[in-house]
TrEMBL record, chain A:
Cofactors required: [2Fe-2S] cluster; FAD; [4Fe-4S] cluster; siroheme
Position of the signal peptide: none
Entry keyword set: 2Fe-2S, 4Fe-4S, FAD, Flavoprotein, Heme, Iron, Iron-sulfur, Metal-binding, Nitrate assimilation, Oxidoreductase
PROSITE patterns per the UniProt record, alphabetical: NIR_SIR
Protein's UniProt keywords contain Metal-binding: yes
GO molecular function, one term: 2 iron, 2 sulfur cluster binding
Pfam families tied to this protein: Fer2_BFD (PF04324), NIR_SIR (PF01077), NIR_SIR_ferr (PF03460), Pyr_redox_2 (PF07992), Rubredoxin_C (PF18267)
Origin species: Maribacter vaceletii
Binding site for [4Fe-4S] cluster: C644, C650, C684, C688
BP-aspect Gene Ontology terms: energy derivation by oxidation of organic compounds; nitrate assimilation
Binding site for siroheme: C688
Name of the protein described by the UniProt record: Nitrite reductase (NADH) large subunit
Automatic annotation (TrEMBL), chain B:
Cross-referenced Gene3D superfamilies: Rieske [2Fe-2S] iron-sulphur domain (2.102.10.10)
Species, as recorded: Maribacter vaceletii
Record lineage: Bacteria, Pseudomonadati, Bacteroidota, Flavobacteriia, Flavobacteriales
CDD domains to which the protein is assigned, alphabetical: Rieske_NirD
InterPro entries reported in the protein's UniProt record: NasD-like, Rieske-like_NirD, Rieske_2Fe-2S, Rieske_2Fe-2S_sf
UniProt entry keywords in alphabetical sequence: 2Fe-2S, Heme, Iron, Iron-sulfur, Metal-binding, Nitrate assimilation, Oxidoreductase
Annotated signal sequence range: none
GO MF annotation terms: 2 iron, 2 sulfur cluster binding; metal ion binding; nitrite reductase [NAD(P)H] activity
Name listed for the protein in its UniProt record: Nitrite reductase (NADH) small subunit
């Protein structure tokens, strides 16, 4: 097994590890990573977010466990001090000595501190690590105690300097930016865009000082000001230096690797240094005489080094490196791409400027007007992704290139559809993901939505700048595949459940065929639309599942829950969970008679398992004879109303939760809905009935009931929301009637109340307006419809066993009285269970 | 368990040697199915009234080897007549037995003829 030592655990060092372990050949290597900082690699690009939440963990590229899970030894807080090229060994500040086969240097850079007199004074910081930020926060807090209006300056008006300026604002100090050049962001912006940016930043409270060369830092022990010229002084009590970066190349110096004149370790396009066993990546690598201070080229370098080490020597760093950037500085979009400053001889510039809105857009086009060469955007960078792609891929541009940047409605805004991009177009430059990869993962069926695309391709997980484009591509690809997120019930209808509800109600249809023939797409229905229509017929006409049993879902068809081996389980209704000893004995005797496995359900009812199709009517006849009725455990309908014992027995009870629970269960029993419905009634706030986990829940309080709606256990647990307080029994029923009916009318198939309520536009407030204030004027209709369903209730098992025609379906064979001979049961804790599935 | 599924082999109409008189047509629900017993075989028979056609296939779901297909809903999947297994909604073509939403083995299908309001299932021995 070979050993790779990675020196440096910053963003690029981490990326090397991530890309390395993703390769299957990596199993043959041991990877050891040294980091000088006390924590694993974090996202330095978004460092200023630390000021918002001070959550260092949130910035982590991956938690410490990730390294362990991937068999990487991560050693933090330990600096590598020497490289012994000849013996292929390193030593660390803690005198550890380790051998390597390959060494990867990813030590990054440090902040450049110019040699200004007094720079060592207290209150002068650099902006680079989380520790730097913690130091600043502590110092700022101390300053504000004595002077709430303390000022702080940032030395450097570049990209990082402006980020640091935001940090100063977030710390509540008066922010000043001091820049040597006559404009902000001199490397990325031209003078006009720089002015637009300056105006914008000044308007939000930043003080900007340009063309200032700092002579010395004033103050005795701590900083009190900055002196530029003789009488040109800026009083500040804190200074953050952000005047550029210097590669952390001291290791290379001492070990004799070839270096650049102004620092940086010289690498070739394999990322190899002058020693073939040593690679350098990121901000210490001097490639093409350049240090690349952006994360995307650093990630590319990491990828090249991984492939080179694993023997895939064809992966090389490209000659030209795209330095386009898009960022949000203090809430202002700033982007530049390609050649932002183009000499007039090479092409023409088209400039759109609106200082009142702090907008600036410039594009540079070739002399023949056919190619986009570069550009600058300040104030609004929404066009960036598309412009950048057009530039990268050399795509054709409109005859009037101004259309690319003009606001929509003024001749612009419509050019450039993401789907026009070539497959090789690189969408995410941090992770090097192409359009082809994004579309491919959707086309192959691997990804079904944006979240899948992101997790499959990693697009958008770096700087995040490409997210809008990834989203557009995902949506456009899904659409092109016809998987537009339509909410039609299935291929047989171009209608959703709510449409079908209205149609069936208005037209008064009574059968599935009527609905299909009049409103379908000419097909014959399927396992999706048949149960939906069956449920709607039940919700609207109070039809039981006996009426058209061949369109019912598996369970409804036989009024029982189909189990693993094709036998069924039987759950009689026990309203509110209250049961007499005689009934309990009857249940036991019936279970015994038919040898049924018996268990208390999750909804605290009694479930009898293992009934064959032929046994079902016999069991139900016995149950009905003992006063039971269907529990609708098989239906998308009310299951139980769970109750605690309440004031009838409990010494804490505020009201009769059992009595009210029984009343509610009997009221809504048998009503078919888009999904199952559960209720709960608790007699006091101790909430023993767990009512807030139910679709409707009640808690007795002083002066009435508190009503909670939209709770859910299941795969996505959700607490019900407090809907009304201290209301009486009558009002409770009124509100639940209206609520359930509204849900039954408008929810999607198989959507529980929780999901429905969550997606309801206007949320709980809207529900209150409709249900309590009757904003839509439908409250009475809703109540009447519910009352009709309540009045028409009929136990469908009683109905079935009294009708010989309906009984026919409970035979396993049409031509024999025999039962299924394929069933095998095995013993289980004094009962039985079906033989295990192979 | 494979011993069970091996008993079911598709019978083509031209290979039928025995027409088994199963049950009167009224024993089968409209656009639904029921199970016919023939010797030690269980055959799901469907009255696809919307197509005015009858279909038959093994009652055994190849997914979990349970005798349940006759209790499934029928309809069409992109125009192909199908039955959906009531356990996990795996769907199978009623025409050739192919699993239309997965890669389960195809189920065996059988010819049906209707004579004097009686349903006959075709077997070849």
């Amino acid at each position: 097994m070979k050993t790779i030592i990675v020196v440096g655990n910053g963003m690029v060092g981490y990326k090397f590890c991530e890309k390395f372990v993703a390769k299957k050949e990596s199993k043959e290597y041991k990877v050891i990573v040294f980091g000088e900082e006390p924590r694993p690699a974090y996202d330095r690009v978004h460092l200023s977010e630390f000021f918002e939440n001070q959550d260092a963990k949130a910035l982590e590229m991956a938690p410490a466990e990730w390294y362990a899970e991937n068999n990487i030894d991560l050693i933090v807080d330990e600096r590598v001090t020497d490289i012994h090229k000849a013996s292929k060994k390193i030593t660390t500040a803690k005198d550890r000595e380790l051998s390597y086969d390959y060494l990867v240097l990813a030590t990054g850079s440090s902040a450049f501190v110019p040699p200004i007199k007094g720079v060592e004074k207290e209150g002068v910081f650099v902006y680079r690590t989380i520790e730097d930020l913690e130091g600043m926060l502590a110092y700022a807090a101390k300053l504000k105690q004595t002077n709430p209006n303390a000022k702080a300056a940032v030395l450097g008006g570049g990209l990082l300097g402006l980020e640091a300026g935001k940090a100063v604002m977030d710390m509540g100090l008066e922010p000043h930016i001091v820049e040597f050049a006559p404009k902000l962001m001199p490397r990325q912006l031209d003078s006009r865009s720089s002015q637009v940016l300056q105006l914008k930043l000044e308007s939000i409270g930043l003080n900007i000082h340009l063309s200032k060369a700092t002579n010395q830092i004033l103050g005795d022990k701590a900083i009190t000001g900055m002196e530029f010229g003789e009488d040109d002084v800026l009083d500040v009590e804190m200074l953050i230096i952000s005047a550029g970066i210097r590669p952390r190349d001291e290791l290379a110096k001492t070990s004799g690797l070839e270096m650049g004149v102004r620092g940086g370790i010289v690498v070739d396009n394999k990322m190899q240094t002058s020693d073939p066993n040593i690679y350098a990546i990121g901000e210490i690598a001097l490639y093409n005489q350049m240090i690349y201070g952006l994360v995307a080229p650093g990630y590319d370098m990491a990828g090249v080094a991984v492939d080179q080490i694993l023997g895939d020597t064809e992966t090389l760093m490209p000659e030209e490196i795209d330095m386009s950037t898009k960022l949000k500085l203090i809430g202002v979009d700033v982007a530049s791409f390609g050649e932002p400053f183009m000499p007039a001889a090479k092409g023409h510039s088209i400039i759109f400027e609106n200082k009142t809105q702090h907008l600036y857009k410039r594009i540079n086009v070739s002399l023949d007007g056919k190619k986009l060469l570069g550009g600058i955007l300040v104030g609004d960078a929404t066009d960036y992704s598309m412009l950048h792609q057009i530039y990268l891929n050399g795509m054709a541009i409109p005859e009037d290139p101004a259309q690319l940047i003009l606001p929509a409605g003024e001749g612009g805004g419509s050019f450039g559809d993401v789907m026009d991009l070539p497959d090789e177009a690189q969408i995410c430059s941090c992770e090097n993901v192409t359009k082809g990869q994004i579309c491919g993962t959707i086309e192959s069926g691997e990804s079904k939505d944006l979240a899948d695309v992101v997790s499959c391709t990693k697009a958008g997980t770096g700087c995040g700048g490409c997210k809008p484009m990834v989203k557009d591509l995902t949506e456009a690809t899904l659409k092109s595949l016809g998987i537009e997120v339509k909410d039609t019930v299935c291929e047989h209808f171009d209608l959703n459940r709510q449409d079908l509800y209205k149609i069936i109600q208005v037209k008064g249809y009574k059968t599935f065929d009527e609905v299909l023939d009049n409103h379908g797409n000419g097909g014959h229905g399927c396992e999706l639309c048949k149960p939906v229509v069956a449920s709607l017929m039940a919700s609207i006409n109070a039809d039981t599942a006996n009426k058209e049993y061949a369109i019912q879902d598996s369970n409804d068809r036989f009024l029982a829950n189909i189990q693993r081996n094709g036998t069924y389980s039987v759950v009689p209704r026990v309203p509110g969970g209250e049961i007499t000893p005689d009934k309990l004995i009857a249940l036991g005797e019936i279970a015994k008679k038919y040898d049924l496995y018996t268990k208390v359900t999750g909804g605290v009812r009694i479930d009898l398992f293992g009934a064959t199709l032929n046994q079902l009517p016999l069991i139900w006849k016995d149950l009905i004879d003992h006063g039971f009725e269907s529990g609708h455990a098989y239906g998308k309908s009310l299951r139980t109303v769970k109750t605690c014992v309440g004031s009838t027995w409990c010494r804490y009870g505020m009201d009769e939760s059992v009595s009210f629970g029984i009343e509610l269960e009997n009221r809504y029993r048998g009503i078919r809905a888009p999904h199952k419905i559960k209720g709960g009634v608790s007699g006091c706030i101790r909430e023993c009935a767990e009512a807030r986990g139910k679709d409707f829940g009640l808690i007795a309080v002083e002066g009435g009931w508190n009503l909670y709606l939209g709770g859910n256990g299941g795969a996505t647990p959700r607490h019900a929301e407090l809907f009304a307080e201290q209301i009486d029994n009558k009002t409770v029923i009124k509100y639940i009637d209206r609520y359930l009916m509204l849900y039954m009318r408008t929810a999607k198939p198989l959507q529980r109340t929780a999901a429905w309520q969550e997606r309801l536009e206007g949320g709980l407030e809207y529900l209150k307006e409709v249900i309590i204030d009757d904003k839509l004027g439908i409250a009475e209709d809703l109540e009447n419809e519910m009352q009709t369903l309540v009045n028409k209730f009929e136990c469908e098992w009683t109905q079935a066993i009294n009708d010989p025609e309906m009984m026919k379906r409970f035979n396993h064979f049409v031509n024999s009285e025999e039962e299924d001979d394929n069933l095998v049961f095995v013993p289980l804790r004094e009962q039985k269970m079906p033989e295990k599935w192979v | 368990m494979n011993i069970v599924s091996e008993k079911y082999k598709t019978v083509k109409p031209e290979d039928v040697t025995t027409w088994f008189k199963a049950a009167p047509i009224t024993a089968f629900p409209k656009d639904g199915g029921a199970c016919v017993k023939y010797k030690d075989l269980q055959i799901a028979v469907f009255n696809f009234e919307r197509l005015n056609t009858w279909y038959a296939c093994q009652n055994l779901s190849p997914e979990k080897q349970e005798m349940v297909l006759s209790r499934g809903m029928i309809g069409d999947h992109k125009g192909i007549p199908m039955v959906a297994c009531p356990l996990h909604k795996k769907i199978f073509s009623l025409e050739n037995g192919d699993n239309l939403n997965g890669d389960l083995e195809a189920i065996a299908t059988y010819p049906i003829k209707i004579e004097n309001d009686f349903v006959y299932v075709g077997f070849s021995e």
